[in-house]
Design goal:
alpha/beta, D-Maltodextrin-Binding Protein, domain 2, 2 domains, ten-stranded mixed β-sheet, two-stranded parallel sheet, 14 strands
């Protein structure tokens, strides 16, 4: 049976589109990437039997709280209003400290926090006996440039090549708009939580693999300031960071593998390849606090963090699209060719 010319043209277009849609995955060097998740069980060898039997003791500063919570900065802005609203409605006195994954893990190891928030999947050393991880959702991580930069899209493979030093000029990118941007790319990197899985380790597994001419910054404000001050700079931040009024006009994000990070359906389907995990912890055993358990249940089944931050993909949406969980903890990515 013959095929009319317009049908042959349409089929050719579909084939071309399919090839280009996979370009971001096909040019990745999988051998250079670190793990996305490290599922595992608590290791009792990390602590003493006395530590396991010990309850939670809040820092002795003269104040008393029903819940002491350590919160990574990437979760703080999204979850703190929900926690405070819940606390007010239930007569709870809650203290929430803003910090990093590192400052969340410390008070847990000392048994001084009832709950803690992390933006990275836990490493083996985070899995202390009694600690239970609960995934509230995920937030896309976006690659950012100066607003004057004409580039609008990039592939994840090109990102990897930029940070390894294999791709150094803007004109080498696949985006046709890159031809309007002469000069070298200035990679900017923030290598936090070097031994936890996920986050920047999905680009290159360790610091030694990063291009020596990269600028390494220590904080999120430093990342934004560096990219905002240099038209040739290229970096990454959580989508939440760009949402802040102080940052909105200073930097802008690129589409990644043809997907806008605000396309929550594609993110929920596992098509957007770069994100942060919103994990909160509670305790079982000697450290258990029923108030913390009820708060987690509220964040998972009552509150809606996407109301004020629609780019968050809630755990319920992840489950509907086949993301694997162990209890309440997200432990993998569904049907993603680039994942290990």
């Amino acid at each position: 049976m013959s095929t009319c010319p317009w049908m042959r043209l349409w089929m050719a277009f579909l084939m071309l589109w399919s090839v280009s849609a996979q370009a971001g995955q096909s040019d990745l060097d999988f051998a250079l990437r670190g793990p996305s998740f490290e599922p595992g069980k608590p290791d009792p060898r990390l602590v003493t039997p006395e530590w396991i039997r010990k309850g939670i003791t809040h820092p002795s500063d003269g104040q008393r709280f029903d819940l002491h919570i350590e919160m990574d900065q990437n979760l703080y802005d999204a979850l703190t209003p929900l926690v405070e609203q819940y606390a007010a409605g239930n007569g709870l006195k809650v203290r929430i400290n803003r910090g990093t994954c590192g400052t969340s893990s410390g008070p847990l190891a000392k048994k001084q926090a009832d709950m803690a928030g992390f933006c990275c999947p836990p490493a083996s050393y985070d899995r202390l006996p009694g600690i239970v991880f609960h995934t509230i959702g995920i937030v896309p991580t976006v690659f950012i440039t100066h607003p004057s930069n004409p580039v609008t899209r990039i592939t994840f493979g090109e990102v990897q090549k930029i940070y390894s030093g294999e791709l150094r000029e803007w004109r080498e990118l696949s985006d046709p708009a890159a031809r309007e941007m002469p000069g070298a790319i200035q990679p900017v990197a923030r290598l936090h939580c070097e031994t936890r899985p996920g986050h920047w380790r999905e680009i290159l597994d360790n610091k030694n693999l990063f291009f020596q001419n990269s600028l390494f910054v220590s904080s999120i404000p430093d990342m934004v300031d560096t990219v905002a001050s240099n038209p040739h700079a290229f970096g990454w931040v959580s989508r939440w960071v760009v949402e802040k009024p102080a940052n909105k006009k200073r930097v802008r994000w690129l589409k990644l593998d043809g997907i806008d990070p605000d396309d929550t359906r594609s993110v929920a389907e596992g098509k957007y390849p770069y994100f942060k995990v919103m994990n909160m912890t509670t305790w079982e055993g000697a450290g258990a606090n029923p108030r913390a358990d009820r708060l987690i249940d509220h964040l998972l089944n009552g509150a809606d963090p996407t109301r004020d931050a629609p780019f968050i993909v809630h755990a319920h949406a992840l489950r509907r699209h086949g993301w694997p969980f162990d209890g309440n903890e997200l432990i993998g990515i569904p049907n993603r060719a680039m994942d290990r």
